[in-house]
C-alpha cells in the first residue's frame, strides 16, 4: 500500500536523486530523476563474493582475446558478411594490427542470478560501459533512505535483508582511468595538466552519469573534455613520438568512448567527398594510431561481441587457458558462462521442437532492442538468410528468483508496485594492458538494473528497468 508517508519518502528520494546527479536529461534546460527502486535487492553473500572474486578474470581473458589479432580476424570475418557495421569494425581492425595505443579495458560484465545455477553471464560490455556512477549513487540513496525513513524503508525491504553492499564505482573507475592517463602523461613529460577526452553521442540524455565520472577525474587534477566523433573530424593531429593532439586543447592522454557502438555514431552526411561513416571511422582509427590510453579499442569492442562470447562459452577450461588463464582460473571463468548455440540452417527446425521460453535469440547489437523472445524466435530464424546465420546466436534463458515481497518503483515522479521484480547485475572491472588497475584485482563496483519478470527490455533509459542496489541476505 502506498500511503501518505510512503509518498513523502519517495518525494524526498526524487529530490535527493536530482540533487546528487541521479538524473536523465529531458531537454536542453531540464532533467528528470532516473527511474529507481525504493529499496535494494537481496543477494546471497557467497554468491556475490564469489562473483566479485571471479569477474576480474573475465577482464584478464578479454584483454588477451583483444590482443590476438589472428583469432579476431578468423572469428569476426563470418559475421562481417551479414552485418555491415561489423564489416566496418573489421576493416578498422585490419588497419590497427600494430599500434602504439595503451589499451585501457573498462568492462561491465552483465549477469543474472539464476535461481538454480547462480550468476551467469548475459553479455560483455567493452565499449560505452557506463552507468557505474549511477550504480554508486543509487546505493547511496538507499543508504540515505534507510537512515532517514527507517519505517517506510523496512516496509518495502526484503524480509531477510541484511547489510547493504558498498559500491565504490565512481572512485575506482576514476582511479583506473587516472592511472592510464597519468602513465601517458609521464611518458611525454610535457607541461600542462593531464587531459582526458570522452567521446560522446550528440543530444545524449545520459550525461549526468558521465559528468559524475568527469568530476571525479577533475578532483584528481585531470582536465576533461567532451567531443562527438563529428566534432573530432579534422581537429586531431599527431605530434612528436606519436603524441595525439586536439585543436584548441593540446595533448590528449586518455580517450574514453561512450559512443561508437552503433553505426549512427559515425554518420556525417555533411562531410563532402567520402562515403557516409567512412570519415568518422577513420577518426577512430587515427586515435589508436597514436600513443594514448584508449577504451574501448576496436579490438576490445570485437572481443566483447556476442560472437566471441558464444565461442568462449563453448570452450573447455583447457581451451580457455589459451587466453592467459591458469587452468583453475579457466574453470572459474567457465562457471560464469551460460549456454549459447550458434545459428545455422538447422536452427529453425531444432527450435520448433523446443519450448520457446527457454531461449533468447540475440544478434550482435549493443544496447536495448537486439534480443528476440518467446514466440517471435522461430519466425525470425525462418526468415534469416544463410549469410546472416553467423550474426545471431541462441542463449539459454536465465531464470532469476523474483523478490519475495512487492517492490516499490519510482519513475517520472510516479510510484508503482511490482510483484515479480528481477535484477540484472553488472560488474565493473578495469585493466591496463591486461593488468588490474584497482584494488581487488581490478574490480570496480557494480550496477543493478531491475524490472518486472514479464518485461523483456530492462534498460533504465531505453526500456522499463530501474536503478537498484544490493544488500546481503541475512541468514542469521
Automatic annotation (TrEMBL):
Q: Locate the Glutathione synthase substrate-binding domain: which residues? A: 195-303
Q: What GO MF annotations does this protein's record show?
A: ATP binding; glutathione binding; glutathione synthase activity; metal ion binding
Any single GO CC term annotated in Swiss-Prot or TrEMBL for this entry: cytosol
Query: Its Enzyme Commission number?
Result: 6.3.2.3
Q: What class of enzyme is it?
A: ligase
Whether Magnesium counts among this entry's keywords is: yes
Iron among keywords? no
Q: In which pathway does it act?
A: Sulfur metabolism; glutathione biosynthesis; glutathione from L-cysteine and L-glutamate: step 2/2
Tell me the SUPFAM superfamilies matching this sequence.
Glutathione synthetase ATP-binding domain-like (SSF56059), PreATP-grasp domain (SSF52440)
Its needed co-factors are: Mg(2+)
Alphabetic keyword roster: ATP-binding, Glutathione biosynthesis, Ligase, Magnesium, Metal-binding, Nucleotide-binding
- Family assignment? Belongs to the eukaryotic GSH synthase family.
Q: This protein is called what? A: glutathione synthase
Give the species.
Shewanella sediminis (strain HAW-EB3)
Amino acid at each position: 500500500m502506498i500511503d501518505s508517508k510512503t509518498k513523502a519518502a519517495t518525494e524526498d528520494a526524487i529530490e535527493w536523486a536530482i540533487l546528487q546527479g541521479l538524473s536523465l536529461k529531458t531537454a536542453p534546460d531540464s532533467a528528470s530523476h532516473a527511474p529507481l527502486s525504493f529499496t535494494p535487492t537481496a543477494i546471497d553473500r557467497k554468491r556475490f563474493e564469489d562473483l566479485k572474486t571471479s569477474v576480474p578474470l573475465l577482464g584478464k581473458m578479454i584483454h588477451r582475446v583483444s590482443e590476438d589479432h589472428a583469432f579476431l580476424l578468423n572469428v569476426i570475418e563470418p559475421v562481417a558478411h551479414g552485418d555491415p557495421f561489423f564489416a566496418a569494425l573489421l576493416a578498422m581492425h585490419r588497419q590497427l594490427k600494430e599500434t602504439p595505443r595503451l589499451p585501457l579495458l573498462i568492462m561491465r560484465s552483465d549477469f543474472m542470478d539464476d535461481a538454480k545455477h547462480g550468476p551467469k553471464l548475459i553479455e560483455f560490455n567493452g565499449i560505452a560501459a557506463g552507468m557505474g556512477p549511477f550504480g554508486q549513487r543509487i546505493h547511496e540513496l538507499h543508504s540515505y533512505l534507510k537512515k532517514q525513513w527507517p519505517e517506510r524503508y523496512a516496509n518495502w525491504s526484503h524480509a531477510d535483508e541484511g547489510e547493504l553492499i558498498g559500491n565504490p564505482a565512481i572512485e575506482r573507475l576514476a582511479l583506473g582511468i587516472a592511472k592510464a592517463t597519468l602513465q601517458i602523461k609521464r611518458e611525454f613529460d610535457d607541461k600542462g595538466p593531464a587531459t582526458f577526452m570522452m567521446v560522446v553521442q550528440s543530444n545524449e540524455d545520459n550525461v549526468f552519469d558521465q559528468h559524475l565520472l568527469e568530476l571525479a577525474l577533475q578532483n584528481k587534477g585531470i582536465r576533461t573534455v567532451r567531443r562527438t566523433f563529428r566534432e573530432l573530424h579534422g581537429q586531431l593531429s599527431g605530434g612528436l613520438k606519436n603524441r595525439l593532439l586536439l585543436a584548441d586543447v593540446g595533448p590528449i592522454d586518455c580517450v574514453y568512448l561512450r559512443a561508437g557502438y552503433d553505426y549512427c555514431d559515425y554518420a556525417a552526411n555533411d562531410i563532402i567527398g567520402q562515403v557516409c561513416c567512412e570519415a568518422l571511422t577513420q577518426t577512430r582509427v587515427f586515435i589508436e594510431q597514436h600513443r594514448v590510453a584508449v577504451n574501448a579499442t576496436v579490438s576490445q569492442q570485437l572481443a566483447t561481441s556476442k560472437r566471441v562470447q558464444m565461442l568462449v562459452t563453448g570452450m573447455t577450461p583447457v581451451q580457455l587457458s589459451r587466453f592467459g588463464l591458469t587452468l583453475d582460473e579457466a574453470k572459474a571463468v567457465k562457471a560464469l558462462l551460460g549456454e549459447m548455440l550458434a545459428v545455422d540452417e538447422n536452427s529453425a527446425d531444432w527450435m520448433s521442437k523446443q519450448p520457446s521460453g527457454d531461449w533468447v535469440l540475440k544478434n550482435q547489437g549493443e544496447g536495448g532492442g537486439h534480443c528476440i523472445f518467446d514466440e517471435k524466435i522461430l519466425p525470425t530464424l525462418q526468415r534469416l538468410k544463410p549469410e546472416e546465420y553467423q550474426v545471431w546466436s541462441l542463449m539459454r534463458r536465465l531464470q532469476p528468483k523474483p523478490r519475495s515481497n512487492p517492490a516499490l518503483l519510482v519513475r517520472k515522479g510516479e510510484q508503482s508496485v511490482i510483484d515479480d521484480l528481477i535484477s540484472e547485475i553488472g560488474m565493473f572491472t578495469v585493466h591496463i594492458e591486461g593488468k588490474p588497475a584497482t584494488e581487488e584485482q581490478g574490480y570496480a563496483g557494480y550496477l543493478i538494473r531491475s524490472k518486472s519478470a514479464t518485461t523483456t527490455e530492462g534498460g533504465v533509459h531505453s526500456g522499463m528497468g530501474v536503478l537498484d542496489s544490493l544488500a546481503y541476505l541475512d541468514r542469521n
